[in-house]
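Q: Mind making up any chain with structure tokens?
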Amino acid sequence: MCCKADEHIKHIAAGCKTLVPFEYTNRHNQVAGYAHWTICKIGLQVTDKYYENIPERVINANGTTVL
């Protein structure tokens, strides 16, 4: 995509400058959203599907703070 390196898996997954502003950030946000949903699922009410969950920035419940 960037024409600056061979399109090997390593380059596409971690080094392509064309994908950095979009795909890597999107992937990071999806992983962080799943981790947040999993943590909250232990003792808080969340949606059935992690990708439908819209987390609050800070949650205080039962003496626990989730950021």
